[in-house]
# Entry
Amino acid sequence: MASYRLAMRAVLLHELGGPERLVLEEVPTPAPAPGEVLVRIRAAALNHRDLFVTRGLYPKIALPALLGSDGAGEVAALGDGVTSLHPGSDVVIYPMLDWGDDPALRSPASSILGMPRAGTFAQYVCVPARNVYPKPAHLSFEEAAAIPLGGLTAYRALFTRGKLARGETVLVPGAGGGVQTFVLLFAKQAGARVIATSSSEEKLERARALGADLALNYAENSSWEKEVRAAGPVDLVVDSSGGETLSKALSVVRPGGRVVLYGGTHPEANVKLFALFWNELSVIGSTMGSPQDFAAMLALFDKGLKPAVDRVFSMTQIVAAMRRMDDASQFGKIVLSW
Amino acid sequence: MASYRLAMRAVLLHELGGPERLVLEEVPTPAPAPGEVLVRIRAAALNHRDLFVTRGLYPKIALPALLGSDGAGEVAALGDGVTSLHPGSDVVIYPMLDWGDDPALRSPASSILGMPRAGTFAQYVCVPARNVYPKPAHLSFEEAAAIPLGGLTAYRALFTRGKLARGETVLVPGAGGGVQTFVLLFAKQAGARVIATSSSEEKLERARALGADLALNYAENSSWEKEVRAAGPVDLVVDSSGGETLSKALSVVRPGGRVVLYGGTHPEANVKLFALFWNELSVIGSTMGSPQDFAAMLALFDKGLKPAVDRVFSMTQIVAAMRRMDDASQFGKIVLSW
# Structure
């Protein structure tokens, strides 16, 4: 039986009201149940989900909550029956629990790590042994922690649902968001051409540095749609904005093209149906990803690829880190480190 | 060189203004160009496209127009170079011209028979030899003429775009329309379960007679959506109504389900995006169909299947026939016969 500390520090949400309600406190270190592992978290990362929960904007919130879906660290202890892992191994955590047997569709019983199951904004987390994967060796813990939920979402949206093929052109609206930076990186890695948009010149510059072939300021350039069309046919749009952005995506994508939506910042869209059926467009929902998606996504990092890390905060600065995400001032993932 | 008449009767549209503008007159019988065949039309059928053109509600209308996309008849003469066909053969016409080489996407140069190319509301029509297929032997000319554009649209929507699998459940809103009766028939033939809706008890009765497992009156039964959900998960919806029907389709389809749209009677829809991405739904546009779709669709009739023919009018009664379609009082295809 491995030993582990009896108390750990963790970020708790006892009441709704925004990220300012998050508090750092001491709680009992969890013990791994049979089939689980205890991971010592070296770095975690933020997702919009964490922010939404603090504001009550998420289904089935249970309080108190220990949030955090992304984490990387070391195996600290093994529950009974776990023989495939060794204490001290560096791992990154697959954040979907109980996905089920069908890679095409998650089980209704599935959930995301970090509410209701205690998440990664803590010194230790218990997860099923099948949820830990070897950390890509060339990545730091901070870099590895940036990957899980955002990389998974981007992978499934681009490949499993969006069926991206080499040589196609992908439009990435709002290129600064955490998931969108993965979309950009993975699409380039897969041999696609990428058109990125943002309202920030600084983010457009960074998108170009990550490999965007064309980067357009939609706020300052009212003819950006024309420029997108002039740049050649767009095969695929990957978006989480919804609203007007979705309507525009349907007007710029080529006949037979696909628009994959993995979120809805603007939760409704008015869709003109003539273009949809006449041009045989597809609007495809996507969210999270299967274990198969996660394994294939991690393999993209085998050849030296690195995620876009916006900034690393200390876990004690979680409120400031959340505010940065809320301002949408980040480019890439916001990481928390102990 | 085969002989053909110098004059024929045909339905012409010289000016826009609705189906009342259609006139029967004598015009020169066309001569088949190299690679074409002249078909003596024994029966034709109506599509909403014909009605839309008479009202000016269609892209790129050229007048005078000789409408009609659906036809069945006999090969009357062969153009130079056509060796694969024999005069006197009974044929049904594939109504897409210049689809192109890609089964997944029609060429921008493609068009539908019956404007600008002279269509089937005539005693004779010239089409490329590759556009004629053997008439299924057990079908009358009237039955065969009912099939082409409607059957093609239904086939592509259900199978090529909708990926219907045996054992799945298909929701068919507005089950009386010509295309929707093919959707119902083909889905049953493919081993699917069919839920049909209509506002007419008479049409619901006919949908049951065609094999619908459940037929619901959406006008008189405000809880029809609940009944659909209670009847088990809906995998696929095939719709051409758009508007509110599309919104409801997205609320009744199961997680991972597909909604295929091949028309937009109500041309805009408000789409709630949370259900779309969270449930990984797909909204898939579809229209017409490839030569491959047409051949596979015709093969569905090999085992004795018959199309739903609403009524057979004489070609001289075309205005009355068009009014019946405009009233939406038909169940199945409205056929015209010489």
Summary: Residues 7-151+290-337 of chain B form a domain with the Quinone Oxidoreductase; Chain A, domain 1 fold (CATH 3.90.180.10).
